[in-house]
UniProtKB/TrEMBL annotation:
<keyword id="KW-0812">Transmembrane</keyword>
<keyword id="KW-0472">Membrane</keyword>
<keyword id="KW-1133">Transmembrane helix</keyword>
<feature type="transmembrane region" description="Helical">
    <location>
        <begin position="371"/>
        <end position="393"/>
    </location>
</feature>
<dbReference type="GO" id="GO:0006835">
    <property type="term" value="P:dicarboxylic acid transport"/>
</dbReference>
<feature type="transmembrane region" description="Helical">
    <location>
        <begin position="162"/>
        <end position="179"/>
    </location>
</feature>
<feature type="region of interest" description="Disordered">
    <location>
        <begin position="421"/>
        <end position="450"/>
    </location>
</feature>
<dbReference type="GO" id="GO:0015293">
    <property type="term" value="F:symporter activity"/>
</dbReference>
<dbReference type="Pfam" id="PF00375">
    <property type="entry name" value="SDF"/>
</dbReference>
<dbReference type="InterPro" id="IPR036458">
    <property type="entry name" value="Na:dicarbo_symporter_sf"/>
</dbReference>
<feature type="transmembrane region" description="Helical">
    <location>
        <begin position="200"/>
        <end position="227"/>
    </location>
</feature>
<feature type="transmembrane region" description="Helical">
    <location>
        <begin position="30"/>
        <end position="49"/>
    </location>
</feature>
<feature type="transmembrane region" description="Helical">
    <location>
        <begin position="98"/>
        <end position="119"/>
    </location>
</feature>
<protein>
    <submittedName>
        <fullName>Na+/H+-dicarboxylate symporter</fullName>
    </submittedName>
</protein>
<feature type="transmembrane region" description="Helical">
    <location>
        <begin position="61"/>
        <end position="86"/>
    </location>
</feature>
<keyword id="KW-1003">Cell membrane</keyword>
<keyword id="KW-0813">Transport</keyword>
Length: 450
C-alpha cells in the first residue's frame, strides 16, 4: 500500500500539469479576455490601417450570434417572468420603468447640452462645401403605436420587432399566470407543464449564451480593429472636442446612476463589478438589444428576479436612450458652433424636448441616433449639412452612448427590483445564473438560518 500511493500521485500530477489550452482559456475570467481583445484590436487597427477590414467577418459573426439570441431570449424570459408575478404587480413594474426611463433621459439630455455649452465643441471648425447628408425621418407616432400589436408573431420574430414580440410575450405570460391560478385542475395542470416548457427554454438559451460568450473576445478584437483601422487617430483630431464632450457627459451620467443606486441603498461597488461586462459588450457591439443576453446575466448575478428583468431590460433596450440623448444634445450644440449659430433658450428647450420624446419612437429603428439628431437639428432650425461631420465619427460616439444605455437599463432594473417586495434576492449572496427562482422558492428558511 505504501508503494501504491506515490505511483498514484505521480500519475495524477502530469495530468493536472497538462491542462489543455482550451481549458486554460475557459478558466480565464471573461472580462480579462475582453479587455485584452480590446487593447489588441486598437493596436492592430492603428498598425495595419484600413486593410484590417479583412477581419470584419469575425466581428460580423459575433454580432449575428448575439442577434440570433435576442428574440428567443426576450420571448421566453418575458413569458416566464410575467407568469411568475401577478398582473397587478406587473403594472406597477411597468409604470416605474417608464417613469425612470423618461426622467434619466431628460437628465442625460441636460448634461449633454450643458457640457457642450461649456466646452463649445466645433468652434472654429470650417464646414466642407460638399458635406451633405440625407435627412432621416422617424416613423409617425400612429405607426409606432399600431406596430406594437403584431399581425403575425412569426413575422415579428423574424424581423426583430422588439415591441411587437414583447406585446405577444406579455399577453401569453398574463394568460399563463391566470391559468396557474385557475380553480380548474385541468387548466392548472396544463399551466404547470407549459411553465416547465418555458423555464426549460430559458435555461437552454442561457446555455447557448455561455457558449457564445466564449467566442466574444474574437468578435471584440475584430470589431474594434476595423473601426480604428478605418477611422485612424488623425481623423479624430478635428472632432476630438465633440468626442471628449460626449464621453465626459457619459461619465457624469454614470455618476448620476451611482447616486441613484446610493439613494436606493444599493451596493454601488458590487453593481459596477457585475455591470462592467455588459457595459463593455455594449461598447464594442454598439447594440443595446444585442447586449441583452449579457445584461440579463448581470441582472441575475445582482439578485434581480426574472419577474423584473424580463420586462425592464428588453423595454429599456428599446426605449431607454440616455447615451443617445447625450449625443444628440452635444452634437446639436456642435452643429450650431460649426454654422456660427447662437442657440437661444427656446431652441435648447426644443432640442431637449424632441430628444426625450423621440427616444421612445425611434429606439428600435436602425440608425436611431442619426434619426434623433436630424430631428433635433430640424426642430432647432439649423442646417443639415454639418450632420455629415458628426456621422464621420458616429461609430466612435456610438460605442460610448451604447455603454451608457446599457448601464442605465441595468440601474433601473436594480432599483425597481429593490422597490418590489420579493423581487430581489440577498445581494450579498445571489444564486448562480439561472437559479434565482429556485433559490427564492426553496429557501426563506435557509437564508434566515444563515
Amino acid at each position: 500500500m505504501a508503494g501504491s500511493s506515490p505511483s498514484r500521485t505521480g500519475a495524477e500530477e502530469p495530468t493536472a500539469s497538462r491542462r489543455s489550452p482550451w481549458r486554460w482559456y475557459l478558466d480565464v475570467p471573461l472580462i480579462w479576455k475582453l479587455a485584452v481583445a480590446l487593447v489588441l484590436g486598437v493596436v492592430a487597427g492603428l498598425v495595419v490601417g484600413p486593410p484590417i477590414a479583412v477581419v470584419q467577418p469575425l466581428g460580423d459573426i459575433f454580432l449575428r450570434l448575439l442577434t440570433m439570441l435576442v428574440m428567443p431570449l426576450i420571448l421566453l424570459t418575458l413569458i416566464a417572468g410575467v407568469a411568475s408575478v401577478s398582473p397587478k404587480t406587473l403594472g406597477r413594474i411597468g409604470g416605474k420603468a417608464f417613469v425612470y426611463y423618461l426622467v434619466t433621459t431628460a437628465f442625460a439630455m441636460t448634461i449633454g447640452i450643458g457640457v457642450a455649452l461649456l466646452v463649445s465643441p466645433g468652434a472654429g471648425l470650417s464646414l466642407p462645401g460638399d458635406a451633405e447628408v440625407d435627412e432621416e425621418t422617424a416613423p409617425p407616432l400612429a405607426e409606432v403605436l399600431t406596430g406594437i400589436v403584431p399581425d403575425n408573431i412569426f413575422s415579428a420574430l423574424a424581423e426583430g420587432e422588439v415591441l411587437a414580440v414583447m406585446f405577444f410575450a406579455l399577453a401569453v405570460g398574463v394568460a399563463l399566470a391566470f391559468m396557474q391560478d385557475s380553480t380548474d385542475d385541468h387548466l392548472a395542470g396544463l399551466a404547470m407543464h407549459l411553465r416547465r416548457f418555458v423555464d426549460g427554454g430559458v435555461e437552454l438559451v442561457f446555455l447557448v449564451i455561455r457558449g457564445v460568450l466564449q467566442y466574444s473576445p474574437i468578435g471584440v478584437f475584430a470589431l474594434i480593429a476595423v473601426v480604428v483601422g478605418e477611422t485612424g487617430a488623425d481623423a479624430l483630431l478635428p472632432l476630438a472636442s465633440l468626442t471628449g464632450v460626449v464621453y465626459g457627459s457619459i461619465i457624469l451620467q454614470i455618476v448620476v446612476y451611482a447616486l441613484i443606486l446610493l439613494l436606493f441603498r444599493a451596493p454601488v461597488g458590487r453593481f459596477f463589478r457585475e455591470a462592467k461586462e455588459p457595459m463593455l459588450t455594449g461598447f464594442v457591439t454598439r447594440s443595446s438589444s444585442g447586449t441583452l443576453p449579457v445584461t440579463i446575466r448581470a441582472a441575475e448575478r445582482l439578485g434581480v428576479r426574472k419577474g423584473v428583468y424580463s420586462f425592464t431590460l428588453p423595454l429599456g433596450a428599446t426605449i431607454n436612450m440616455d447615451g443617445t440623448a447625450i449625443y444628440v444634445g452635444a452634437a446639436t450644440v456642435f452643429i450650431a458652433n460649426v454654422t456660427g449659430t447662437q442657440l437661444t433658450l427656446t431652441q435648447l428647450a426644443t432640442v431637449a424636448a424632441v430628444g426625450v420624446l423621440a427616444s421612445v419612437g425611434t429606439a428600435g429603428v436602425p440608425g436611431a441616433g442619426l434619426i434623433m439628431l436630424t430631428m433635433a437639428v430640424t426642430a432647432a432650425g439649423l442646417p443639415m449639412a454639418p450632420v455629415a461631420l458628426v456621422a464621420g465619427i458616429d461609430a466612435i460616439l456610438d460605442m460610448g452612448r451604447t455603454l451608457c444605455n446599457v448601464a442605465g437599463d441595468l440601474t433601473g432594473t436594480r432599483i425597481i427590483a429593490k422597490s418590489e417586495p420579493g423581487m430581489l434576492v440577498d445581494p450579498d449572496a445571489p444564486p448562480e445564473v439561472g437559479e434565482v427562482d429556485e433559490a427564492d422558492e426553496a429557501g426563506t428558511g435557509q437564508s434566515g438560518a444563515g
